[in-house]
Amino acid sequence: MHLPGVKPLFLVGYSLLRATLTTTTTTTAYPQQLPFLPPSTTHFRSDSHLTNKPLKVAIIGGGPAGTSAGFFLSQFANASGNPVEIEIFERSDYLGGRSNIIYPFDSSDYPSVEAGASIFVSANKHLHQAVRQFNLSLETFHTDGSSENYAIWDGTEFAFESSRSSWWDTIKLFWRYGRAPLQLNALSKRNLDQFQAIYSKDFVALGPFEELQQWALATGFDHLLSTTGSDYLINEEGINVQAVNELVAIMARTNYGQDICVIHGLGAMVSMAGSDGRSVQGGNRQIFQQFAKQSRAKLNFNHQITAISELEVSDQGRSQYVLSYHHHPHQQLSSRRTTGDSEPFDAVILAAPYDQAAVTVLTSEAPVQVPHQPFVHLHVSFVVTNATAPSGELFDRPPDQFMARSIYSTMMRNVIGKGKRPLFNSLNYLKNLGPKEGVIGDMYIVKIFSEAPLPTNTLAKLFGSVQNLLWIKRIKWDAYPILAPLVPPSKYPPTKLGDKLYYVNGFENLISTMETQTLASWNIAMSLSKDVWNYVPQKSWAH
Fold first, then answer.
1. What is 55-98+282-373+485-533's CATH number?
2. Domain of life of the organism in this record (predicted)?
């Protein structure tokens, strides 16, 4: 999220990883040696060398974590001189997981809009390396450029409204929040610098991390994970309460759908990270499509994995697994689904949230306990409208009063027990789509995040009339984990569920972004490579 005019004063964050559950629409009017891999100069032990057969690896989930895990593993196999065969099982009909696009009016005649994982920033080195490696093009993220006005709404009244004058907005910010914007800037930079150490040779040499708590300790983020964002910022960093409950709160609500008094400190800081958002032209999911392509993975779409079953130890002395699945040739035709079992795999990577995946794990050892991780249920409404700005009526103002085109909500009034939850988390006019025959004025695509679905009559009130609603698309997401502080009896999720059975998405309890899913998959691919080939890379892919 970028609040226009505020960038020089404090850094704000962005909507990152999101996952789709249901969608409804209403119309109303190959592998290559990469720079991070050193030439193989050491003899590497390899189980597959004993049989001269490739290591067969199944990856469950074709999102950022699954596709990048396959890519990194294929690179490690290449560097260590070992053959590998990778299969990705994806329950939907596309790659990218929570990175997907929609088209206004469901027509590719209009520019695509990111429906989930919207942008990434310069600090996200894996994603930028992918853009360079795969020759993709970037575009700058921005809201509709014809208006730079934004506002902070607390569900009852506006806590802050920008003007058309940047210098006057600066004065108002300091008048209301004191030196907090400068403090937040400095704090965000400090944490970004700390995050950048993850890509260093020294940090890579510490891995792979078999316990996520080890990763948290190694990065120094363990304390941020054990406290709430508001406690950390107010009680430890001395940021004034009003700034935290308004400026930082809107970032946490927009990016993670959670209040600043609930989300852990690291989640709050990630929300603030960066003001230089970029996205891939044509959709960020192209990165993950390329990860899969470059790994030469076999793709199995519309495959819902129901069980992972360990077989008896093979003649070669290693565990193997069989996947049971439902196959839906066309997802909407559930009556036509088929069931089956896969061929045996030497290793399995579960690259989907454990609870959502609903996979039964049957191993020879006692089952590894995975802490329950609830997700935020987020509603996204895309509206094409010819209303040049929201109507003031919904905000108890005259319908024709000028309103900001970017509105972010805070729970400030609720914190002091005198208010109600805002109707939405954020509203942004994204793009001017231009004119259309039969429509008065230009059309705009607007994106709204909310905790509950917004009915058509509410949207009509928000945009002036039902006639101003030219097209509506609603998406319900299990968007991101509820990032509660990790304090006893809370436990860090495991990275292994059995012998050569790995779990990537527990990392989302720490940080949930596209970039950090690739960092998590790097760690898992390194762990598998070390277990099977005794090979680990010497430096990060981003260097």
1. 3.50.50.60
2. Eukaryota
